[in-house]
Specification:
Blueprint lengths: L2 H13 L9 E7 L2 H9 L4 E9 L8 H4 L7 E8 L6 H12 L7 E2 L2 E2 L5 E5 L2 H16 L10 E4 L3 E3 L7 H4 L4 H17 L7
Parallel strand pairs: 6-7
Antiparallel strand pairs: 1-3, 1-6, 2-3, 2-8, 4-5
Helix pairs in contact: 2-4, 2-7, 4-5
Length: 200
């Protein structure tokens, strides 16, 4: 590369260090145990990163053993980083409601019970709030479920990453009974229901 080209490249990096980061957005969803929700979104085209964690409570209680007591205000959550030019927030909402969890289960999901397993959309902007409420309204009007949708739509205050052993949990525990019976079917459902969105 010519010296002038290198200089121009270095100048661009110096002036616009966040240019690449600005191309992505983040969303935070809670829908039961974060292992399965994490795995589903990791297989969605356009998603660049998924982190399991906690949201809804304080930093001092963002630890698995404490959150598991169900008294912290936290919900097991996933932070999804995505490229909106490939997958939209509304599409992520569609996956959240129809594949990642059952939005009609109150303070539980499958075999897991407690407020830490509640269904929540933590919105980071007015646009996300509007899209989340519109999705719920549309699904309600369409009578997509037998029961009412109990998903909360609340502002995101903070997201705290979970302990390292919870990250990419499904990929490292493919034969664990909980994963086999509760989470692998979600990934399979994503592939069969939305093949155009599925990424191996």
């Amino acid at each position: 590369m010519a010296r002038s080209s290198v200089a121009r490249a270095l100048l661009f990096v110096a002036l616009f260090p966040l240019a690449a980061a600005a191309q992505t957005q983040t969303a935070v969803f809670s829908g039961g145990c974060f292992w399965g929700v994490d795995a589903v979104f990791k297989h969605v085209k356009g998603v660049t990163r998924v982190v399991s964690g906690y949201s809804g409570g304080e930093a001092s209680t963002a630890h698995y053993e404490i959150v598991s007591e169900g008294t912290t205000g936290h919900a097991e959550s996933v932070q999804v980083t995505f490229d909106p030019s490939i997958v939209t927030y509304s599409t992520l909402l569609k996956v959240f409601f129809s594949v990642a969890h059952d939005p009609t289960e109150l303070n539980r999901q499958g075999p897991d019970e407690g407020t830490q397993y509640r269904s929540v959309i933590f919105f980071a902007s007015a646009e996300q709030q509007k899209a989340a409420k519109a999705s719920i309204d549309d699904l309600t009007k369409a009578k997509a479920y037998r029961g009412p949708i109990v998903t909360q739509v609340v502002p995101l205050k903070e997201f705290y990453a979970a302990e390292g052993y919870h990250q990419d949990y499904l990929a490292h525990h493919l034969t664990q009974p909980y994963i086999v019976y509760n989470d692998l079917p979600k990934v399979a459902n994503l592939k069969s229901k939305y093949p155009e969105l599925y990424r191996p």
